[in-house]
Design goal:
The complex is a heterodimer of chains A (161) and B (412).
Chain A: E1 2-8, H1 15-18, H2 31-34, H3 44-47, E2 53-56, H4 68-75, E3 80-83, H5 88-96, E4 101-103, H6 107-110, E5 116-120, E6 125-128, E7 131-133, H7 140-148, H8 151-160
Helix pairs in contact in A: 7-8
Chain B: H1 6-15, E1 24-28, E2 31-35, H2 39-49, E3 60-63, H3 73-89, E4 93-95, H4 102-108, E5 117-120, E6 134-137, H5 140-149, E7 151-155, E8 159-165, H6 174-185, E9 194-198, H7 200-204, H8 207-215, E10 224-226, H9 231-237, E11 251-256, E12 263-265, E13 273-275, H10 276-279, E14 286-289, H11 291-294, H12 297-307, E15 317-320, H13 325-333, H14 336-343, E16 346-347, E17 368-371, E18 387-390, H15 393-402
Helix pairs in contact in B: 2-5, 6-8, 12-14, 12-15
Classes of the chains: A alpha/beta (161), B alpha/beta (412).
The complex binds iron/sulfur cluster.
């Protein structure tokens, strides 16, 4: 169960606003969370707290394949992203790095910024003040990668067997 | 017997059994590639995985294109890391600075052939789908997993057919066609799906024009932009391969290439597409001709026809960057570079150039650029207060001459 308070964003949040390209070539990777979603809200990185949840509209994470977008979100302490839909490369990158995602229709309408929501990754249910929204849970294969903590850990676990 | 889509057949061929749409499968990868931007994270992931030797160095391509030449000490340091990796692993298909953009270099070198499963650590790897193969973009960790195991997890995508009838003509190019398609499908209308472009317009266009079409599949959320291979495909690659064809019914969208007009995608969203005449006269500070979308010889050729004997507007900087070294050489030999230089254009080093907004033509506050590239998100090419219009090589060249957005049909 993941529980946390919500930061809300709209449709088509792209990887260029999640983390602008100019920070990607930084050797010091701790800078990424400091510029998280800077393109939409320059003060966001100072407001977001460990355990917070991002809620967004359609096509979250569209654009480039930069894995830094998923990493910046994870390293900023965000515990999950719930969106109406995700862009496919972002979706892969998040799962591969152990960042939980829930694709949940109707979530934008059901929550306001600051609400506390509860996510049950096993069932795919999201509890909001307006009731429980159902979504399809991740297929078992992807849950396994997520549970291992990402694709790297999944690979190591498989190798060890 | 029930038929399948070409993409299903390619995946089935790779895994050695029939596959169903929506199924998750581990697929052997025929060729994978990445660039200096995604390379460092791939190397980090391999290290964390504890992989010392990658599985098959012959099936990997590395092309430096994102920071060419490096724009900061950090970029140079990261490139050195990837260069050392290529040497240590004995990767023969390694292309250092100046060879071109990965999506251009990989097919130009004939590293791929129809029927293959190809994965690139860059979102525009969907471009290679126009060579009759399955190609998609992934992030660094996925690519590291491929280097370690030779495999990737994939969900077998549903196919959305885009039937392009008619024929492109005059100053209307395949960029205008794909912009119109993005407008129709929307920025997420093809998420998780494979797009398959077909029809007379696609058969008639050059392989380079097809690359422009497939390049922008990801702008609709698609996994790949498949086009059935034909003689033009074999000729471009310098090799043949297994040809796969869709023989089942798929959902289709129809578009008439014959009645198209030049288009632009207005700032903020690639789907915000309008006919050029609706925004004609908009002031521009910069015009960019290049990128993996439209930096090929035919793009330079069409643009040079417009610029020839004219001058770039004094208030406009016109940046021209060939997509690869071989493009550059041919354009130079044929006098195109002379035309651009004499008109007042700035020629950049072969690579991605200002497309990703970090160097060689970054936009300042309130500046406007018209670009042949594929993304116009907020801040994509520089300041978050700048804006980008996307258009064809012809429209960009006409606009560079006029200093404002201009319909290329005004130039005969
Ligand atoms: S030219 Fe632009 S879109 Fe193409 S690979 Fe380079 S940065 Fe990406």
């Amino acid at each position: 169960m993941i529980k946390g308070s919500v930061w809300k964003f709209g449709d088509d949040v792209d990887t260029d606003v999640i983390i602008p390209a100019k920070y990607l070539r930084s050797v010091d990777q701790t800078v990424w969370p400091k510029h998280l979603l800077e393109g939409l809200d320059p003060t966001f990185s100072s407001k977001v707290k460990t355990g917070n949840i991002i809620v967004a509209g359609r096509n979250f994470g569209c654009g480039s394949s930069r894995e830094q977008a998923a990493l910046a979100i994870k390293w900023a302490g965000v515990s999950a992203v719930v969106a109406e839909s995700f862009a496919r490369i972002f979706f892969r990158n998040a799962i591969n790095n152990g960042l939980p995602l829930v694709e949940c229709k109707g979530i934008s309408k059901a929550v306001d910024e600051g609400d506390v929501i509860e996510i049950d990754l096993d069932s795919g249910n999201v509890k909001t003040k307006k009731g429980i929204l159902r979504s399809s849970p991740l297929p078992p294969f992807l849950k396994e990668i997520l549970k291992s903590g990402g694709l790297v850990e999944y690979y190591k676990a498989k190798r060890a067997v | 017997m029930l038929g399948s889509t070409a993409v299903e057949k390619i995946i089935a061929n790779a895994v050695g059994r029939r596959v169903r749409v929506g199924e998750f499968v581990e697929v052997p990868v025929d060729f994978s590639y990445f660039h200096d931007g995604t390379g460092p994270l791939i190397i980090d992931a391999l290290k964390r995985m504890g992989v010392e030797k990658i599985k098959d160095p012959d099936r990997v391509g590395i092309v430096f294109d994102h920071s060419v030449p490096p724009y900061s000490d950090q970029a140079a340091t990261l490139q050195a890391k990837v260069r050392k990796f290529a040497r240590d692993q004995g990767i023969p298909k390694f292309h250092d600075l100046g060879e071109g953009i990965c999506h251009q270099v990989v097919p130009e070198m004939g590293y791929v052939s129809p029927g293959m499963v190809v994965i690139g650590a860059d979102s525009h790897s969907c471009t290679l789908g126009c060579f009759g193969l399955f190609s998609t973009g992934v992030g660094a960790t996925d690519l590291a997993y491929i280097l370690a195991t030779g495999r990737i997890w994939l969900k077998v995508p549903e196919t959305l057919g885009i039937d392009c009838k008619g024929r492109l003509s005059g100053k209307v190019s395949s960029k205008d066609l794909i912009l119109e398609i993005v407008r129709m499908v929307g920025t997420d209308g093809a998420t998780y799906k494979a797009l398959e472009f077909s029809g007379a317009a696609v058969r008639h266009m050059s392989q380079s024009s097809r690359m422009t079409v497939s390049n922008m599949a990801v702008e609709m959320g698609a996994k790949t932009g498949f086009i059935e291979a034909d003689l033009k495909t074999f000729e471009f690659l310098g090799r043949e391969g297994k040809t796969f064809r869709t023989d089942t019914k798929v959902e289709r969208i129809r578009v008439d290439a014959g009645s198209l007009e030049p288009k632009v995608a207005c700032p903020g969203s690639v789907a915000n597409v309008k006919p050029v005449y609706e925004v004609e006269g908009t002031h521009i500070d910069q015009a960019f001709l290049g990128s993996c979308t439209n930096g090929r010889y035919e793009d330079l050729f069409e643009a040079a026809k417009i610029v020839r004997g004219r001058k770039v507007h004094r208030d406009t900087r016109f940046i021209v960057i060939p997509a690869s070294k071989s493009t550059y050489l041919k354009a130079q030999k044929d006098g195109l570079m002379d035309i651009f230089l004499k008109a007042g254009a700035i020629i950049g080093v072969t690579g991605c150039g200002p497309c990703l907004g970090v160097h060689m033509g970054v936009l300042g506050d309130n500046e406007v650029c018209i670009s042949t590239s594929n993304r116009n998100f907020i801040g994509r090419m520089g300041s978050v207060k700048s804006s980008v219009y996307l258009a064809s090589a012809q429209t960009v060249a006409a606009s560079a001459v006029e200093g404002r957005i201009t319909d290329p049909r005004r130039f005969s």
